[in-house]
Fold this sequence. Notes:
Blueprint: E1 7-12, H1 15-25, E2 30-31, E3 37-41, E4 46-51, H2 52-59, E5 73-76, H3 80-92, E6 96-103, E7 109-114, E8 120-125
Parallel strand pairs: 1-4, 5-8
Antiparallel strand pairs: 2-3, 3-4, 6-7, 7-8
Helix pairs in contact: 1-3
Amino acid sequence: MKPRISMITLGVEDMERAVRFYEQGLGFPRKESPPEVAFFTLNGTWLALFSSRSLAEDADVSAEGNGFHNFALAHNVSSEAEVDQVIAQCLAAGATLTRKAQTVFWGGYTGYIQDPDGHLWEIAYNPHFWVGPRD
């Protein structure tokens, strides 16, 4: 078996709002899909959006839950300026800023936002490590 994460599925409360955020805020390219799910093709993986209730039902778990979800997703970009640009796009598309972008102890530059459904995203520039091809 080759270790990989092939798809990340996020439960969302409002599909239209979530799709708008991921298309306009993070600039993710959407793949044609049925209205009850949205797929975005990323470099090496896929992001799916699905109704929170439907996702909970599919996994046979309670749909009731709140608070910190104990994980964050990261979107790495190629410069500090791009971190600021992506955060601004995300805020304009409905995100909430949880930590402004700043230089961090390990030499990178990162900030955190929450998407409209509360999923935590780190927008990061790491000069020491790059995941994926450079644009």
